[in-house]
Amino acid sequence: MRVFMIKSITGFSKLSKSKKIDWIVDTYFSNAEEAKGILKQYWNTNNNLQQLHDEFIENTITNYYLPLGVAPNFLINDTLYTIPMAIEESSVVAAASKAAKFWLERGGFKTEVISTTKIGQVHFIYKGDFDKLNKFFNQVKSRLIDDTEAITKNMTKRGGGILEIELRNKTSDIDNYYQLHTSFETLDAMGANFINSCLEQFAKTFKQEALSFDLFSEEEKQIEIVMSILSNYVPDCLVRAEVSCNVEDLSENATISGEAFANKFIQAVQIAEVEPYRAVTHNKGIMNGIDAVVLATGNDFRAVEAGVHAYASRHGKYSSLTHAKVENGIFTFWMEIPLALGTVGGLTGLHPLVKLALELLHKPSAKELMQIVAVAGLAQNFAALRSLTTTGIQEGHMKMHLMNILNQFEANNTEKEILTKYFKKNTVTHNAVIEALNKLRVSNEN
Ligand code: MEV
Protein backbone atom coordinates (compact mmCIF):
# COMPACT_ATOMS: atom_id res chain seq x y z
CA MET A 1 0.00 0.00 0.00
CA ARG A 2 1.28 3.47 -0.83
CA VAL A 3 1.20 5.93 2.07
CA PHE A 4 0.59 9.57 1.28
CA MET A 5 1.66 12.12 3.89
CA ILE A 6 -0.96 14.71 3.09
CA LYS A 7 -2.41 16.99 5.74
CA SER A 8 -6.09 17.86 5.71
CA ILE A 9 -7.03 21.48 5.17
CA THR A 10 -9.51 23.69 6.98
CA GLY A 11 -11.14 26.73 5.43
CA PHE A 12 -10.45 25.55 1.87
CA SER A 13 -13.74 26.92 0.55
CA LYS A 14 -12.85 30.38 1.87
CA LEU A 15 -9.57 30.55 -0.07
CA SER A 16 -9.47 32.49 -3.33
CA LYS A 17 -9.53 30.44 -6.52
CA SER A 18 -5.83 30.98 -7.09
CA LYS A 19 -4.95 30.02 -3.49
CA LYS A 20 -7.07 26.88 -3.85
CA ILE A 21 -5.14 25.96 -6.97
CA ASP A 22 -1.82 26.70 -5.26
CA TRP A 23 -2.71 24.37 -2.40
CA ILE A 24 -3.82 21.59 -4.75
CA VAL A 25 -0.85 21.71 -7.08
CA ASP A 26 1.67 22.07 -4.23
CA THR A 27 0.10 19.24 -2.26
CA TYR A 28 -0.65 16.68 -4.93
CA PHE A 29 1.52 17.25 -7.98
CA SER A 30 5.16 16.52 -8.60
CA ASN A 31 5.27 19.27 -11.21
CA ALA A 32 3.15 22.01 -9.66
CA GLU A 33 3.73 24.55 -12.42
CA GLU A 34 2.75 22.11 -15.14
CA ALA A 35 -0.44 21.10 -13.28
CA LYS A 36 -1.33 24.76 -12.76
CA GLY A 37 -0.72 25.40 -16.46
CA ILE A 38 -3.16 22.65 -17.45
CA LEU A 39 -5.86 23.94 -15.11
CA LYS A 40 -5.45 27.49 -16.39
CA GLN A 41 -5.40 26.43 -20.01
CA TYR A 42 -9.09 25.59 -19.66
CA TRP A 43 -10.10 28.93 -18.18
CA ASN A 44 -12.19 31.07 -20.47
CA THR A 45 -10.49 34.27 -21.57
CA ASN A 46 -13.76 36.13 -21.06
CA ASN A 47 -13.72 36.88 -17.33
CA ASN A 48 -17.46 37.26 -17.01
CA LEU A 49 -18.09 33.95 -18.69
CA GLN A 50 -15.49 32.30 -16.51
CA GLN A 51 -17.05 33.78 -13.40
CA LEU A 52 -20.44 32.45 -14.47
CA HIS A 53 -18.99 28.95 -14.62
CA ASP A 54 -17.04 29.41 -11.41
CA GLU A 55 -20.27 30.21 -9.62
CA PHE A 56 -22.27 27.19 -10.81
CA ILE A 57 -20.63 25.13 -8.06
CA GLU A 58 -18.30 25.53 -5.09
CA ASN A 59 -14.51 25.28 -5.20
CA THR A 60 -14.32 25.60 -9.00
CA ILE A 61 -10.74 25.43 -10.19
CA THR A 62 -11.25 25.15 -13.93
CA ASN A 63 -13.70 24.01 -16.63
CA TYR A 64 -14.10 20.44 -17.78
CA TYR A 65 -14.77 20.21 -21.49
CA LEU A 66 -17.00 17.68 -23.18
CA PRO A 67 -17.49 17.84 -26.93
CA LEU A 68 -20.82 19.29 -28.03
CA GLY A 69 -21.80 17.57 -31.27
CA VAL A 70 -24.95 17.66 -33.36
CA ALA A 71 -26.97 14.96 -35.07
CA PRO A 72 -29.00 16.38 -37.97
CA ASN A 73 -31.98 15.02 -39.93
CA PHE A 74 -34.22 13.96 -37.06
CA LEU A 75 -37.78 14.06 -38.35
CA ILE A 76 -40.05 14.13 -35.29
CA ASN A 77 -43.81 14.43 -35.85
CA ASP A 78 -43.05 15.97 -39.25
CA THR A 79 -40.68 18.64 -37.92
CA LEU A 80 -36.97 18.45 -38.67
CA TYR A 81 -34.52 18.79 -35.82
CA THR A 82 -30.77 18.93 -35.46
CA ILE A 83 -30.13 17.50 -32.02
CA PRO A 84 -27.30 18.79 -29.81
CA MET A 85 -25.39 16.12 -27.88
CA ALA A 86 -22.75 16.62 -25.20
CA ILE A 87 -20.85 13.37 -24.83
CA GLU A 88 -17.33 12.00 -24.72
CA GLU A 89 -17.99 8.55 -26.20
CA SER A 90 -16.89 8.19 -29.80
CA SER A 91 -19.52 6.94 -32.23
CA VAL A 92 -22.63 8.00 -30.27
CA VAL A 93 -23.24 11.11 -32.39
CA ALA A 94 -22.37 9.24 -35.59
CA ALA A 95 -24.80 6.45 -34.63
CA ALA A 96 -27.57 8.95 -33.84
CA SER A 97 -27.05 10.70 -37.18
CA LYS A 98 -27.15 7.41 -39.03
CA ALA A 99 -30.37 6.33 -37.33
CA ALA A 100 -31.90 9.76 -37.98
CA LYS A 101 -31.12 9.49 -41.68
CA PHE A 102 -32.42 5.92 -41.85
CA TRP A 103 -35.79 6.91 -40.35
CA LEU A 104 -35.95 10.21 -42.25
CA GLU A 105 -36.38 8.09 -45.37
CA ARG A 106 -39.07 5.99 -43.67
CA GLY A 107 -41.47 8.56 -42.22
CA GLY A 108 -39.49 9.73 -39.21
CA PHE A 109 -40.22 9.40 -35.50
CA LYS A 110 -43.66 9.72 -33.93
CA THR A 111 -43.88 10.83 -30.32
CA GLU A 112 -46.46 11.58 -27.68
CA VAL A 113 -46.33 12.86 -24.11
CA ILE A 114 -48.49 10.52 -22.04
CA SER A 115 -48.34 12.32 -18.68
CA THR A 116 -46.40 15.06 -16.87
CA THR A 117 -47.02 14.49 -13.15
CA LYS A 118 -44.12 14.71 -10.68
CA ILE A 119 -43.98 13.46 -7.13
CA GLY A 120 -42.63 14.75 -3.81
CA GLN A 121 -42.94 13.38 -0.30
CA VAL A 122 -42.76 14.56 3.29
CA HIS A 123 -41.58 11.56 5.29
CA PHE A 124 -42.60 11.70 8.94
CA ILE A 125 -42.95 9.75 12.16
CA TYR A 126 -46.21 9.83 14.13
CA LYS A 127 -46.66 7.73 17.24
CA GLY A 128 -50.36 7.29 17.76
CA ASP A 129 -53.76 6.44 16.44
CA PHE A 130 -54.10 6.43 12.63
CA ASP A 131 -57.75 7.55 12.60
CA LYS A 132 -56.83 10.67 14.50
CA LEU A 133 -53.94 11.35 12.11
CA ASN A 134 -56.29 10.94 9.19
CA LYS A 135 -58.78 13.40 10.71
CA PHE A 136 -55.96 15.84 11.33
CA PHE A 137 -54.73 15.47 7.77
CA ASN A 138 -58.18 16.12 6.31
CA GLN A 139 -58.57 19.18 8.48
CA VAL A 140 -55.12 20.62 7.75
CA LYS A 141 -54.96 19.78 4.03
CA SER A 142 -56.33 23.08 2.73
CA ARG A 143 -54.07 24.95 5.15
CA LEU A 144 -51.08 23.08 3.73
CA ILE A 145 -51.98 24.34 0.30
CA ASP A 146 -52.78 27.89 1.46
CA ASP A 147 -49.44 28.20 3.25
CA THR A 148 -47.54 27.49 0.02
CA GLU A 149 -49.33 30.24 -1.87
CA ALA A 150 -46.30 32.51 -2.07
CA ILE A 151 -44.37 29.65 -3.68
CA THR A 152 -47.12 28.38 -5.97
CA LYS A 153 -48.73 31.65 -7.10
CA ASN A 154 -46.92 32.04 -10.41
CA MET A 155 -46.97 28.34 -11.25
CA THR A 156 -50.73 28.17 -10.53
CA LYS A 157 -51.34 31.21 -12.71
CA ARG A 158 -49.69 29.40 -15.60
CA GLY A 159 -51.79 26.28 -15.05
CA GLY A 160 -49.48 24.18 -12.87
CA GLY A 161 -48.99 23.72 -9.15
CA ILE A 162 -49.94 21.19 -6.49
CA LEU A 163 -52.29 18.53 -7.85
CA GLU A 164 -53.00 16.34 -4.85
CA ILE A 165 -51.74 15.60 -1.35
CA GLU A 166 -52.29 12.12 0.02
CA LEU A 167 -51.62 10.77 3.49
CA ARG A 168 -49.90 7.40 3.12
CA ASN A 169 -49.64 4.91 5.94
CA LYS A 170 -46.30 3.12 5.65
CA THR A 171 -46.32 1.51 9.10
CA SER A 172 -46.28 -1.97 7.60
CA ASP A 173 -42.77 -1.15 6.30
CA ILE A 174 -41.39 0.90 9.22
CA ASP A 175 -43.02 1.48 12.61
CA ASN A 176 -44.82 4.85 12.89
CA TYR A 177 -43.77 5.90 9.37
CA TYR A 178 -46.14 8.00 7.21
CA GLN A 179 -45.89 10.22 4.15
CA LEU A 180 -47.52 13.23 2.65
CA HIS A 181 -47.32 11.90 -0.89
CA THR A 182 -47.85 14.83 -3.22
CA SER A 183 -48.22 15.19 -6.96
CA PHE A 184 -47.25 18.30 -8.89
CA GLU A 185 -47.51 19.79 -12.36
CA THR A 186 -44.47 21.96 -12.99
CA LEU A 187 -45.06 22.85 -16.67
CA ASP A 188 -41.83 23.93 -18.38
CA ALA A 189 -39.74 23.78 -15.22
CA MET A 190 -37.99 20.61 -14.10
CA GLY A 191 -39.48 21.74 -10.81
CA ALA A 192 -37.01 20.46 -8.22
CA ASN A 193 -36.78 23.77 -6.34
CA PHE A 194 -40.50 24.38 -6.63
CA ILE A 195 -41.41 20.93 -5.34
CA ASN A 196 -38.87 20.94 -2.52
CA SER A 197 -39.93 24.41 -1.37
CA CYS A 198 -43.60 23.34 -1.28
CA LEU A 199 -42.71 20.18 0.64
CA GLU A 200 -40.63 22.00 3.23
CA GLN A 201 -43.52 24.40 3.77
CA PHE A 202 -45.96 21.47 4.14
CA ALA A 203 -43.66 19.95 6.75
CA LYS A 204 -43.52 23.19 8.73
CA THR A 205 -47.28 23.73 8.66
CA PHE A 206 -48.03 20.08 9.38
CA LYS A 207 -45.75 19.93 12.42
CA GLN A 208 -46.94 23.30 13.72
CA GLU A 209 -50.67 22.61 13.33
CA ALA A 210 -50.35 19.22 15.02
CA LEU A 211 -49.37 20.99 18.23
CA SER A 212 -52.83 22.50 18.54
CA PHE A 213 -54.98 19.62 17.23
CA ASP A 214 -57.33 18.84 20.11
CA LEU A 215 -57.85 15.14 19.40
CA PHE A 216 -54.12 14.40 19.65
CA SER A 217 -52.56 13.28 22.94
CA GLU A 218 -49.38 15.06 24.01
CA GLU A 219 -47.27 12.32 22.37
CA GLU A 220 -49.35 12.38 19.18
CA LYS A 221 -48.80 16.12 18.84
CA GLN A 222 -45.04 15.57 18.49
CA ILE A 223 -44.86 14.73 14.80
CA GLU A 224 -41.26 14.22 13.72
CA ILE A 225 -40.41 15.27 10.19
CA VAL A 226 -37.69 13.02 8.79
CA MET A 227 -37.26 14.76 5.43
CA SER A 228 -39.05 16.56 2.63
CA ILE A 229 -37.86 15.86 -0.89
CA LEU A 230 -39.01 15.34 -4.45
CA SER A 231 -38.85 11.89 -5.98
CA ASN A 232 -36.79 11.24 -9.09
CA TYR A 233 -39.04 8.29 -9.78
CA VAL A 234 -41.54 9.79 -12.20
CA PRO A 235 -43.51 6.92 -13.78
CA ASP A 236 -46.33 9.39 -14.45
CA CYS A 237 -44.14 11.82 -16.36
CA LEU A 238 -44.04 9.60 -19.38
CA VAL A 239 -43.23 10.02 -23.06
CA ARG A 240 -43.52 7.59 -25.95
CA ALA A 241 -41.36 7.51 -29.08
CA GLU A 242 -41.93 5.20 -31.99
CA VAL A 243 -40.78 4.36 -35.50
CA SER A 244 -42.47 2.06 -37.97
CA CYS A 245 -42.29 1.02 -41.60
CA ASN A 246 -43.08 -1.85 -43.94
CA VAL A 247 -40.83 -4.78 -43.13
CA GLU A 248 -39.39 -4.89 -46.64
CA ASP A 249 -38.36 -1.22 -46.35
CA LEU A 250 -35.98 -2.12 -43.53
CA SER A 251 -33.54 -3.59 -46.00
CA GLU A 252 -30.86 -1.21 -47.23
CA ASN A 253 -28.86 -3.60 -49.35
CA ALA A 254 -28.85 -7.12 -50.70
CA THR A 255 -26.90 -8.59 -47.76
CA ILE A 256 -29.94 -8.93 -45.52
CA SER A 257 -33.66 -8.90 -46.34
CA GLY A 258 -36.04 -6.64 -44.42
CA GLU A 259 -37.69 -9.67 -42.90
CA ALA A 260 -34.43 -11.25 -41.74
CA PHE A 261 -33.32 -7.93 -40.28
CA ALA A 262 -36.63 -7.47 -38.44
CA ASN A 263 -36.50 -11.00 -37.01
CA LYS A 264 -32.99 -10.62 -35.71
CA PHE A 265 -33.69 -7.16 -34.37
CA ILE A 266 -36.81 -8.35 -32.52
CA GLN A 267 -34.85 -11.26 -31.06
CA ALA A 268 -32.25 -8.83 -29.75
CA VAL A 269 -34.97 -6.75 -28.09
CA GLN A 270 -36.62 -9.87 -26.65
CA ILE A 271 -33.32 -10.93 -25.11
CA ALA A 272 -33.08 -7.54 -23.40
CA GLU A 273 -36.69 -7.93 -22.22
CA VAL A 274 -35.95 -11.19 -20.39
CA GLU A 275 -32.24 -11.07 -19.52
CA PRO A 276 -31.11 -8.39 -17.03
CA TYR A 277 -27.40 -8.68 -17.94
CA ARG A 278 -28.25 -7.76 -21.50
CA ALA A 279 -31.01 -5.29 -20.50
CA VAL A 280 -28.56 -3.12 -18.55
CA THR A 281 -26.24 -2.74 -21.56
CA HIS A 282 -29.18 -2.35 -23.93
CA ASN A 283 -30.58 0.45 -21.77
CA LYS A 284 -27.12 1.95 -21.29
CA GLY A 285 -27.03 2.40 -25.06
CA ILE A 286 -30.39 4.19 -24.88
CA MET A 287 -28.97 6.46 -22.17
CA ASN A 288 -26.03 7.30 -24.46
CA GLY A 289 -28.52 9.23 -26.55
CA ILE A 290 -30.67 10.49 -23.71
CA ASP A 291 -27.92 11.75 -21.40
CA ALA A 292 -26.13 13.53 -24.22
CA VAL A 293 -29.20 15.65 -25.05
CA VAL A 294 -30.17 16.05 -21.40
CA LEU A 295 -26.68 17.39 -20.67
CA ALA A 296 -26.57 19.64 -23.75
CA THR A 297 -29.90 21.19 -22.72
CA GLY A 298 -28.76 21.87 -19.15
CA ASN A 299 -30.91 19.23 -17.50
CA ASP A 300 -30.11 16.91 -14.61
CA PHE A 301 -28.90 13.67 -16.17
CA ARG A 302 -28.46 11.95 -12.77
CA ALA A 303 -32.14 12.51 -12.03
CA VAL A 304 -33.07 11.16 -15.45
CA GLU A 305 -30.76 8.15 -15.08
CA ALA A 306 -32.14 7.27 -11.64
CA GLY A 307 -35.74 7.58 -12.77
CA VAL A 308 -35.30 5.71 -16.03
CA HIS A 309 -33.54 2.71 -14.47
CA ALA A 310 -36.09 2.49 -11.68
CA TYR A 311 -38.78 2.46 -14.36
CA ALA A 312 -36.94 -0.32 -16.19
CA SER A 313 -37.39 -2.47 -13.06
CA ARG A 314 -40.97 -1.49 -12.30
CA HIS A 315 -42.25 -5.05 -12.76
CA GLY A 316 -39.76 -6.43 -10.24
CA LYS A 317 -37.11 -7.43 -12.78
CA TYR A 318 -34.80 -5.13 -14.71
CA SER A 319 -35.85 -5.15 -18.35
CA SER A 320 -35.56 -3.47 -21.73
CA LEU A 321 -37.02 -0.01 -22.13
CA THR A 322 -37.64 -0.55 -25.83
CA HIS A 323 -39.90 -3.03 -27.58
CA ALA A 324 -40.31 -4.20 -31.16
CA LYS A 325 -42.83 -6.18 -33.18
CA VAL A 326 -43.97 -7.04 -36.68
CA GLU A 327 -47.71 -7.03 -37.26
CA ASN A 328 -49.41 -7.23 -40.65
CA GLY A 329 -46.11 -6.66 -42.40
CA ILE A 330 -45.35 -3.51 -40.39
CA PHE A 331 -42.24 -3.29 -38.22
CA THR A 332 -42.73 -1.13 -35.12
CA PHE A 333 -40.05 -0.19 -32.60
CA TRP A 334 -40.98 1.92 -29.58
CA MET A 335 -40.17 3.04 -26.09
CA GLU A 336 -42.00 4.66 -23.20
CA ILE A 337 -39.82 6.33 -20.61
CA PRO A 338 -40.20 8.72 -17.71
CA LEU A 339 -38.40 12.04 -18.25
CA ALA A 340 -38.60 14.99 -15.86
CA LEU A 341 -37.09 17.83 -17.86
CA GLY A 342 -37.16 21.59 -17.86
CA THR A 343 -36.71 24.28 -20.48
CA VAL A 344 -36.95 27.18 -18.03
CA GLY A 345 -35.08 27.69 -14.77
CA GLY A 346 -31.87 26.00 -13.65
CA LEU A 347 -29.03 26.22 -16.15
CA THR A 348 -31.39 26.80 -19.08
CA GLY A 349 -31.31 30.58 -18.82
CA LEU A 350 -27.74 30.82 -17.56
CA HIS A 351 -25.37 28.67 -19.57
CA PRO A 352 -24.74 30.24 -22.99
CA LEU A 353 -24.29 26.85 -24.67
CA VAL A 354 -27.47 25.52 -23.12
CA LYS A 355 -29.37 28.54 -24.43
CA LEU A 356 -27.84 27.90 -27.84
CA ALA A 357 -28.79 24.22 -27.71
CA LEU A 358 -32.38 25.10 -26.85
CA GLU A 359 -32.58 27.62 -29.67
CA LEU A 360 -31.22 24.97 -32.04
CA LEU A 361 -34.17 22.81 -30.94
CA HIS A 362 -36.68 25.58 -31.80
CA LYS A 363 -36.91 26.68 -28.12
CA PRO A 364 -38.97 23.68 -27.03
CA SER A 365 -41.44 23.46 -24.17
CA ALA A 366 -40.60 20.82 -21.56
CA LYS A 367 -43.10 18.50 -23.26
CA GLU A 368 -41.42 18.99 -26.63
CA LEU A 369 -38.02 18.40 -25.10
CA MET A 370 -39.27 15.16 -23.53
CA GLN A 371 -40.16 13.98 -27.03
CA ILE A 372 -36.84 15.01 -28.58
CA VAL A 373 -34.86 13.34 -25.80
CA ALA A 374 -36.88 10.14 -26.07
CA VAL A 375 -36.23 10.07 -29.80
CA ALA A 376 -32.49 10.44 -29.22
CA GLY A 377 -32.68 7.40 -26.93
CA LEU A 378 -34.73 5.31 -29.34
CA ALA A 379 -32.48 6.24 -32.27
CA GLN A 380 -29.40 5.30 -30.29
CA ASN A 381 -30.85 1.92 -29.40
CA PHE A 382 -31.87 1.34 -33.02
CA ALA A 383 -28.35 2.13 -34.20
CA ALA A 384 -26.75 -0.10 -31.57
CA LEU A 385 -29.02 -3.09 -32.26
CA ARG A 386 -28.62 -2.64 -35.99
CA SER A 387 -24.83 -2.84 -35.69
CA LEU A 388 -24.90 -5.60 -33.08
CA THR A 389 -27.17 -7.84 -35.11
CA THR A 390 -25.39 -7.25 -38.42
CA THR A 391 -21.74 -6.17 -38.61
CA GLY A 392 -21.04 -6.14 -34.85
CA ILE A 393 -20.38 -3.02 -32.86
CA GLN A 394 -16.60 -2.94 -33.00
CA GLU A 395 -16.23 -2.07 -36.66
CA GLY A 396 -17.83 1.34 -36.22
CA HIS A 397 -16.55 1.82 -32.70
CA MET A 398 -12.93 1.14 -33.48
CA LYS A 399 -13.01 3.47 -36.48
CA MET A 400 -14.06 6.28 -34.17
CA HIS A 401 -11.65 5.06 -31.54
CA LEU A 402 -8.83 5.24 -34.09
CA MET A 403 -8.78 9.03 -33.76
CA ASN A 404 -8.55 8.78 -29.98
CA ILE A 405 -5.56 6.45 -30.24
CA LEU A 406 -3.89 8.66 -32.85
CA ASN A 407 -4.39 11.70 -30.61
CA GLN A 408 -3.02 9.81 -27.63
CA PHE A 409 0.20 9.25 -29.58
CA GLU A 410 0.19 12.83 -30.85
CA ALA A 411 -0.15 11.94 -34.52
CA ASN A 412 0.08 14.99 -36.78
CA ASN A 413 -2.51 15.77 -39.45
CA THR A 414 -0.61 14.01 -42.25
CA GLU A 415 -0.17 10.89 -40.13
CA LYS A 416 -3.89 10.95 -39.28
CA GLU A 417 -4.83 11.24 -42.91
CA ILE A 418 -2.59 8.38 -44.03
CA LEU A 419 -3.63 6.07 -41.20
CA THR A 420 -7.35 6.81 -41.50
CA LYS A 421 -7.05 5.73 -45.13
CA TYR A 422 -5.02 2.65 -44.16
CA PHE A 423 -7.52 1.56 -41.52
CA LYS A 424 -10.44 1.80 -43.94
CA LYS A 425 -9.13 -1.52 -45.24
CA ASN A 426 -7.48 -2.92 -42.12
CA THR A 427 -8.79 -3.91 -38.71
CA VAL A 428 -8.37 -1.30 -36.00
CA THR A 429 -6.85 -2.57 -32.77
CA HIS A 430 -4.86 -0.57 -30.26
CA ASN A 431 -1.68 -2.45 -31.16
CA ALA A 432 -2.29 -2.31 -34.89
CA VAL A 433 -2.63 1.49 -34.73
CA ILE A 434 0.56 1.92 -32.70
CA GLU A 435 2.44 -0.42 -35.02
CA ALA A 436 1.23 1.36 -38.14
CA LEU A 437 2.06 4.76 -36.66
CA ASN A 438 5.56 3.65 -35.66
CA LYS A 439 6.15 2.13 -39.08
CA LEU A 440 5.07 5.36 -40.74
CA ARG A 441 7.33 7.40 -38.51
CA VAL A 442 10.32 5.14 -39.15
CA SER A 443 9.75 5.21 -42.90
CA ASN A 444 9.53 9.03 -42.77
CA GLU A 445 12.84 9.17 -40.91
CA ASN A 446 14.61 7.08 -43.57
C1 MEV B 1 -22.00 1.31 -25.83
O1 MEV B 1 -21.81 2.54 -25.20
C2 MEV B 1 -23.47 0.99 -25.92
C3 MEV B 1 -23.81 -0.39 -26.47
O2 MEV B 1 -23.12 -1.39 -25.72
C4 MEV B 1 -25.29 -0.56 -26.34
C5 MEV B 1 -25.81 -1.95 -26.66
O3 MEV B 1 -25.06 -2.91 -26.48
O4 MEV B 1 -26.97 -2.04 -27.03
C6 MEV B 1 -23.36 -0.54 -27.89
Fold and architecture overview:
The protein is an alpha+beta fold and 446 residues long. Helices cover 49% and strands 18% of the residues. It contains 16 helices and ten strands. The chain has helices at residues 17-28, 32-41, 47-54, 92-104, 130-147, 149-157, 192-210, 218-221, 258-274, 276-296, 301-312, 352-360, 366-389, 394-408, 413-425, 430-445; strands spanning 68-76, 79-86, 110-113, 117-125, 161-169, 177-185, 224-230, 238-246, 322-327, 330-338. The strands form three sheets. Strands 3-8-10-9 form a four-stranded antiparallel sheet. β9 and β10 form a beta hairpin. α10 (276-296) packs antiparallel against α11 (301-312), α10 (276-296) packs across α13 (366-389) and α14 (394-408) runs antiparallel to α15 (413-425). The model has no long low-confidence stretch (mean pLDDT 96). Bound molecules: (R)-mevalonate. The site of (R)-mevalonate has 9 residues, from α10 and α13.
Attribute tags:
single chain; 446 residues; alpha+beta; four-stranded antiparallel beta sheet; 16 helices; 49% helix; globular; binds (R)-mevalonate
Query: Which molecules are bound besides the chains?
Result: (R)-mevalonate
Sequence of strands across the biggest β-sheet: 3-8-10-9
> How many helices does DSSP assign?
16
Overall pLDDT level = 96
DSSP, total strands: 10
CA(first)-CA(last) distance: 47 Å
> Quick one: overall form?
globular
Strand content: 15-25%
Q: Strand-and-helix sequence, N→C?
A: HHHEEHEEHHEEHHEEHHHEEHHHHH
- The value of Rg in angstroms is 27 Å
**Low-pLDDT ranges:** none
Largest sheet: 4 strands, antiparallel
Structural class: alpha+beta
Question: What fraction, in percent, of the residue positions are helical?
Answer: 40-55%
